[in-house]
Write a structure and sequence with these properties.
Blueprint lengths: L1 H9 L5 H5 L55 E3 L2 E6 L3 E6 L5 E6 L12
Antiparallel strand pairs: 1-2, 2-3, 3-4
Length: 118
């Protein structure tokens, strides 16, 4: 019974209140621009002019071949998972600690629809 309750808690979705407080927290990035004001300000202080030269990549990810054009949105992060869109109607879920692709969704547009840039 405890396991079922724990699973329910961890599966809860993002709330409006969580999005409103997005800029005040540092665990997740739940909205474009870090909150409803879109200011993109983070409260994190660990990265600054003294520490930035010590940053090193932990992992990287390819969105496909040269013609795939890569990432096309600001990633959203929730509970250790990053969600990001790429060209040609693709969405990826990625483990933030390992960079492992958890899943990929592709949606073909109906014939005759010509989107900008794709």
């Amino acid at each position: 019974m405890v396991m079922a309750a724990t699973a329910h808690v961890s599966a809860q979705g993002v709330t409006d209140a969580m999005i409103a407080d997005d800029a005040k927290t540092s665990d997740n990035v739940l909205s474009w621009g870090l909150g409803t004001q879109g200011q993109r300000h983070s409260p994190l202080t660990g990265i600054n002019e003294k520490t930035i030269s010590k940053l090193v990549p932990v992992w990287s990810m390819s969105f496909g071949g040269e013609k795939q054009r890569g990432q096309q949105s600001q990633p959203l992060v929730n509970n250790g998972k990053m969600f990001v869109t790429a060209s040609y109607s693709r969405i990826y879920a990625v483990d933030t600690k390992t960079g492992k692709k958890l899943w990929k969704y592709e949606h073909r547009l109906p014939e005759g629809i010509m989107p900008c840039c794709d």
